[in-house]
Specification:
mainly alpha; globular; DUF7553
């Protein structure tokens, strides 16, 4: 179930990439989507540090973009945070 949160984040970030108005943002979002898709399928899930780095990148993108892209990135962040609640440690 928890891995579904990472899959949801990847799918939402792909939507955000499609809605992005510039190539740099589109590429950053596609990169993040690919990474979350890979994490969802990995044998071992990401740790808190890796997830925090992704959250930071996504927060920066959301702050820079605004509008529909920011809303979609914020939705993806919610999925990441939901997954992070299932990770042991810190």
């Amino acid at each position: 179930m928890a891995r579904e949160n990472l899959e949801d984040a990847a799918a939402t970030l792909r939507e955000a990439a499609d809605a992005a108005s510039d190539d740099e943002t589109r590429e950053r979002l596609e990169n993040q989507a690919d990474q979350f898709a890979n994490l969802a399928e990995a044998d071992r899930g990401p740790d808190h540090g890796k997830l925090a780095r992704h959250e930071h990148i996504l927060s920066d993108i959301s702050d820079e973009e605004g509008g529909e892209v920011a809303d979609l990135v914020d939705d993806a962040l919610e999925s990441v945070r939901a997954f992070r609640e299932t990770v042991e440690g810190v």
